[in-house]
Every structure is written in C-alpha cells, then in structure tokens.
Specification:
mainly alpha
Length: 160
C-alpha cells in the first residue's frame, strides 16, 4: 500500500512536467492524447498508438495513474518531444527487479536504433512492453516482461 501511494504521488508530481507543462486531472490525459496528432515517423506513430492503447487498458482496469502515464507519453510524442525509456531507479520495486529491468533497458537501448527503422511497429511494442514491465514490477503480473523478452531476443539475434 505504501509503495502504491508513493508511486501515485510521484506520477502526480511528474505528469505536468512530462506533458510539457499541461495539467491534467487524474485519469483525463487520455482524452487529450486521443485528439493529439500522431507523429509522422512510422516508429513514433506506432509508439504513440501503443501508448494510447495501453492507456485505454489501464483506464479500463481503473488504474488512472498508469493510464495517465501512458497518455502523457503519447502527448509528448505528438508534440515532437523525445520520450526516453523510464529508469527503473525511479520505481518502487525490489532491488532484484531494478537490476533485472536495468539490464533489460540497456539491451533495449542497444537494439532500438536499428530496430526502430527495420521493424518500427515491433520496436514500438517493445518500448511499451518495457514501460509496462516497470509498472507491473510494482504489482504482481509479469506478462509485459515476458512479451518484451521474446521481442528483444528476436532483435538481438538479427543484430548479431
């Protein structure tokens, strides 16, 4: 419970900054994201669409903070801003999860430049699965991380 409250507090503090200064009432960023213009590049457009999709899933599940986190990333992309992969150091997760997800993040950073050009939709999926895996690490499910590992292994085998 304490972990959830801390995470929610951090998300609430970061949301206006992440959205380029836009203030959103909790659970409302998705509406702005839906009317935002998708980026032109295939990779960024695919990432934009994935972030909106994940925001919708979180909203249906009643997780307003995570819904807004994804929506704000989509809004940032629509404004032409660079969306960096989240750093596990800023999540309320175990040290084991933090270490594992930091390694996964480094792997993703290594394959992303090439993969974003050759397989933009799959690369965008990998980014959103990574973000999802971080959020899931604060909870129990691990579906996003399993999906991400399959994509990463596919990219890494192509890179070699």
């Amino acid at each position: 419970m304490k972990k959830t409250i801390i995470t929610l507090f951090c998300v609430l503090l970061a949301t206006p900054v992440l959205a380029g200064g836009d203030n959103f009432e909790l659970g409302t960023a998705l509406e702005t994201a839906r009317v935002s213009v998708a980026p032109k590049s295939k990779f960024k457009r695919a990432m934009f669409n994935e972030f909106i999709r994940y925001s919708e899933i979180e909203l249906r599940e009643g997780d307003l903070a995570d819904a807004d986190t994804y929506a704000v990333k989509a809004i940032s992309l629509s404004k032409g801003e660079r969306v960096k992969l989240s750093d596990p150091a800023f999540y309320a997760i175990s040290e084991t999860d933090r270490t594992r997800l930091s390694t996964v993040r480094n792997r993703l950073v290594k394959v992303l430049p090439k993969s974003a050009k050759s397989k933009p939709e799959l690369a965008a999926k990998a980014v959103t699965l990574y973000e999802c895996a971080l959020m899931e690490a604060e909870e129990t499910p691990r579906d996003c991380e399993r999906g991400l590992m399959v994509i990463l292994e596919r990219f890494e085998n192509k890179v070699k």
